[in-house]
Amino acid sequence: MFRAIADVLRQIGGAVATVVTLPFRALARLFGGASSAGFRPARAVP
Q1: pLDDT tens profile 1-40
Q2: Contacts of 35 (CB under 8 A, 6+ apart)
Q3: If you ran DSSP here, which 8-state letter would residue 38 be given?
Q4: What is the C-alpha separation between 11 and 9, in angstroms, rounded?
């Protein structure tokens, strides 16, 4: 009984986490593409 409830809650939590992180993933992809296109972080090159 408790295992079934835990599974349902886990699935709901996973869905909520996916929906919440989608915009941040999109922004990271956007800025990641922009940074690889021309912007270079200030970092010492070995």
Answers
A1: 999 999 999 999 999 999 999 999 999 888 886 655 555 5
A2: 41
A3: T
A4: 5
Structure tokens at 44: 């010492």
8: which 2 tokens? 């349902």
By residue count, the chain amounts to 46
Continuous segment of H or E residues that includes residue 13: helix 2-37
Distance of CA 6 to the CA centre of its chain: 24
Q: pTM of this prediction?
A: 0.51
Residue labelled with tokens 């296109």 = 37
Residue tagged 């996916």 (tokens): 18
Q: What tokens does 13 get?
A: 């939590």
User: What's the one-letter identity of residue 22?
Assistant: L
Task: Quote the CA–CA distance of 4 and 45 in Å, as a whole number.
Answer: 53
